[in-house]
Specification:
alpha+beta; binds ligand 0O2; single chain; five-stranded mixed beta sheet; 6 helices; flat; 5 strands
Length: 191
């Protein structure tokens, strides 16, 4: 497997999507701020891909089809309602095609994880012509990002597994974080 060549279209896709999606920080009228606070992106590491190949029994020549998040972009919003505004905006775009949507905002994962996931097919112009790659866009509030970042860090530092007691604590903290998000939304709606 030539990993350097494999990664090229994904590196390009992440770089392009970051530049394009960062414009959502601007308000539609061009003044003030839009629904987005900040945008980050990454190409999945080779080690992380190899770990997934083993865990999910994937075949190397089907990776581009079976792994939807080799290219990953994250859009952070301030309020919960802004997530849905961003999703609406993304649905109207013509520079990529949405293949799948997963709402883990209203349907949190058992861990407590919340985020809106959109899998897209994004065309990149390569030396050998157009190549469509899959990319995953995660849309979440700052609070959801705070929780997911810490939880991911703790889990990673403990070999991917947390004790049931710690996992339970984190799930409870996710509920508290979401309650904070909902209170902030209410204040915004009231003003
Ligand atoms: P700005 O306008 O200063 O925020 P790059 O593509 O090189 O710019 P890099 O190093 O690849 O960025 O990292 P990544 O993870 O894609 O994105 C990092 C961006 O997220 C940086 O923005 C950070 O400033 C921004 N960021 C991270 N945490 C926060 C946060 O809590 N609030 C805000 N507003 N931004 C955050 P840039 O690129 O420096 O642009
Ligand atoms: P990383 O390090 O973020 O790249 P699977 O990929 O099998 O776990 P599925 O259904 O294929 O699950 O994809 P899903 O659940 O739509 O998206 C998986 C990604 O969502 C993860 O990528 C994380 O980024 C995020 N995610 C999902 N569940 C959790 C969770 O409980 N905690 C945190 N912190 N993030 C979560 P990766 O590949 O696991 O990791």
């Amino acid at each position: 497997m030539n990993w350097d060549a494999f990664f090229i279209p994904y590196i390009q896709a992440v770089a392009e999507l970051k530049v394009k999606l960062r414009y959502l920080r601007l308000a539609p009228q061009g003044a003030g701020s839009g629904p987005v606070e900040f945008v980050t992106g990454r190409v999945k590491s080779r080690a992380s891909i190899e770990e997934k190949i083993v865990r999910r029994h994937l075949s190397e020549d089907r990776l581009a089809l079976d792994l939807q998040d080799i290219a990953g972009v994250r859009i952070m919003t301030r309020y919960v309602q802004d997530i849905y505004q961003v999703v609406e905006i993304l649905r109207k775009r013509t520079d990529f095609q949405i293949l799948e949507e997963r709402d883990y905002v209203m349907n949190a994962k058992p861990s407590g994880y919340r985020s809106y996931h959109i899998v897209i097919e994004y065309p990149v112009e390569t030396i050998s012509g157009e190549r469509k790659v899959l990319a995953e866009i995660q849309v979440r509030t700052l609070a959801m990002n705070f929780w997911a970042t810490i939880e991911h860090d703790l889990r990673y530092k403990h070999g991917g597994e947390l004790s049931p007691a710690v996992a339970e604590q984190l799930t409870q903290l996710s509920d508290e974080t979401f309650s904070l998000d909902q209170k902030m939304s209410e204040i915004k709606e009231e003003l």
